[in-house]
Design brief:
The chain has 500 residues and is mainly α. 47% of the residues lie in helices and 5% in strands. The protein is built from 18 helices and seven strands. Keywords: Carbohydrate metabolism, Cellulose degradation, Glycosidase, Hydrolase, Polysaccharide degradation.
Length: 500
């Protein structure tokens, strides 16, 4: 067992090392080697700490308990299961679906690099979400987009096992639109159908069939879900659709094309690219903006030489790659002094993990077709793209000015006071007595390390100056999210097989 995962280190040594590092009393350590296999295992394990619902007997994050067992009762629908998105106890459908898509894409592209046990664990993590997403779209022309009142929830510091705030169900019925959430859910189910195709063809068929129906709902009733007055106050400002629903329609169609090889979806992304803004905001990728990921995904067919009509998507993907190369005249992305990709707005590692993932995927596509990207004075080879991705991965794991890992439980120095209710409050296994909404405040305000280690959680991370505050109050830096971890699964899997 590595010291970083031992109880002694968690309770005694690691907090001391962390404190010394933050005080500047330890030298910054530049590691030349990382245990990518260990990091991958922990990155996947994190999702067990985010589970909602009735936990199985093989639950490995043992300090967690059952929660949200009545979800959906008020709409007479079983909506148990799924994931809490971050450090709160709300199930937001939009980022959960994106998380699922990215977990599935990680398996599709890099599952072959994973040790068999971790591939199984990754599929379990996907299925925990897809089982829930299937429930959210079980009724025709209706989608349940969220469970839990976020205002009430965020006013409490309460374990998910204790939560007694309203489990409000936010629903969109046709003809009201929910193109963004519905199309992302279709993408998640379609991508997951590919991930499960070889191991469970029946489940894969169910996922793909449902994805087709849900995409039709998304495309027929076009519009952003957060524009609906009856749910807006519940989904905003947390997961509003800030960038429009059009990218999700193209993204959903692209995944259905890949999963089904259907010509109708090929025609959709060919004919709707301009009208749905495929050329807009091509340098973004995350739960709200799918453009860069869309362009990389669609480029696979172009690079394979099978569909030249999608060339504009490849041109946009190439352009995005060039923005990431500092030596290129097209360089656009900002880096911190320590070498981390940086975008304003907080929770910066969500950008670093998604972009690292796209770099590795595109590098593989380019290599298989023996191509490079022309970035003016620089020719971006697959090796160059991988080197940029590796810099991001290694930074997160500890090669940074702070000399700390931003993955909880990995290495000797990692965040001890993450913004996460279940991690920061006593476990129900150790403290079975009910802890009410306001009673958790003493734990939130405490300077003590969290009693429960949320192994594998990647926090929001440092700011533009590489500074990081190990303080659960500083949620933009200290809060983990499922959509930070999901693409990191794929990136780590690549480096398990290609560490140098």
């Amino acid at each position: 067992m590595k010291l970083s995962s031992s109880p002694y280190c968690r309770q005694y040594l690691c907090p001391i090392l962390a404190a010394l590092s933050f005080l500047g009393l330890l030298p910054v350590y530049k590691a030349s080697y990382h245990e990518y296999g260990e990091a991958l295992s922990k990155c996947i394990l994190f999702f067990e700490g985010q589970r909602s619902g009735f936990l199985p007997q093989d639950q490995r994050m043992s300090w967690r308990g059952h929660s949200g067992l009545g979800d959906g009762w008020m709409v007479k629908t079983d909506l148990t299961g799924g994931y809490y998105d971050a450090g709160d106890n709300v199930k937001f459908g939009f980022p959960m679906a994106f998380t699922t898509t990215m977990l599935a894409w990680s398996v599709i592209e890099f599952g072959g690099y994973m040790p068999p046990a971790e591939l199984r664990n990754a599929l379990v993590a996907i299925k925990w979400s897809t089982d829930y997403l299937l429930k959210t779209v079980s009724q025709p022309n209706r989608i349940f987009v969220q469970v839990g009142d976020p205002i009430l929830d965020h006013n409490c510091w309460e374990r998910p096992e204790d939560m007694d705030t309203a489990r409000t169900v936010y629903t969109v019925d046709a003809p009201n639109p929910a193109s963004d959430v519905a199309a992302e859910t279709a993408a998640a189910l379609a991508a997951s159908s590919i991930a499960f195709r070889s191991s469970d063809s029946g489940y894969a068929d169910k996922l793909l069939g449902t994805a087709t129906r849900v995409f039709d709902f998304a495309d027929t009733y076009r519009g952003a879900y957060s524009d609906n007055a009856n749910i807006r106050d519940g989904v905003c400002p947390f997961y509003c659709d800030f960038d429009g629903y059009q990218d999700e329609l193209l993204w959903g169609a692209a995944w259905l094309r890949r999963a089904s090889q259907g010509d109708s979806y090929l025609s959709y992304i060919q004919n709707n690219g301009k009208t749905l803004g495929a050329d807009d905001n091509i340098n973004e990728f995350g739960w709200d903006n799918k453009h860069a990921g869309l362009n990389v995904l669609v480029s696979k067919e172009v690079l394979e030489g099978s569909t030249y009509s999608l060339q504009s998507y490849k041109a946009s993907a190439d352009s995005f790659m060039c923005t990431l190369i500092p030596e290129s005249s097209y360089s656009h992305i900002e880096y911190t002094p320590g070498g981390l990709i940086y975008k304003p707005g907080g929770s910066n590692l969500q950008h670093a993990t998604t972009i690292a993932f796209l770099l590795l995927v595109y590098a593989n596509y380019l290599e298989k077709s023996s191509q490079t990207v022309n970035c003016g004075s620089v020719s971006a080879s697959p090796a160059m793209l991988r080197a940029i991705a590796k810099r991001q991965v290694d930074y997160i794991l500890g090669d940074n000015p702070k000399g700390m890992s931003y993955m909880v439980g990995y290495s000797y120095v990692f965040p001890q006071r993450i913004h996460h209710r279940g991690s920061s409050l006593p476990s129900v296994k150790d403290h079975p007595q009910f802890i009410a909404c306001t009673e958790g405040s003493i734990y939130f305000n405490s300077s003590n390390p969290n009693p429960n280690v949320l192994v594998g959680a990647v926090v929001g991370g440092p700011g533009e100056d590489d500074a990081y505050e190990d303080d659960r109050v500083a949620f933009r830096q200290s809060e983990p999210t499922t959509y930070i971890n999901a693409p990191f699964v794929g990136a780590l899997a690549y480096f398990v097989a290609n560490p140098s």
